[in-house]
Amino acid sequence: MPWNRADYPANWCDEIRPAIFARAQGHCEGSPAYPGCRVKNYSLHPVTGSKVILTTAHLCRCKPKCGALSHLRLLCQRCHRTLDAELHAEHAAETKRRQREAQGQRRLFGLANDNLWRESRPSLREDASLCPCVSGCPVAPRERNLACPVSIK
What we know:
Layout: H1 12-24, E1 55-58, E2 72-75, H2 77-83, H3 85-102, H4 111-120, H5 141-147
Antiparallel strand pairs: 1-2
């Protein structure tokens, strides 16, 4: 996803991002699909062969994006893409829908039906047993398990 500075907390660059990099010690922290991934930043990935550039992944969908370290993880491209695969698919579907509507195609069903369909699909982000949230989490209780699927080791 493109980086939009306005979507992040004010202390992102000065405090949050350096804390995430320090915690990860320059290695991928793994994702639900690849929990054992510990590839080093700027090395060649042993599976994909591409140069690894570690980026910060949001395990939640907080709006605006939160800076809670338990909601963030440093991931390689392979882990980040698999974690965000559902989000990328949703964005692609929305882009296609907007393009079709711009060409004159009308919607058969409203947004409420789209949301019901989306909620019925399984997700990597929905494993309640892995949620690191505790009481006082900024995420609403109903959404808590959807927000933080991966415990930080």
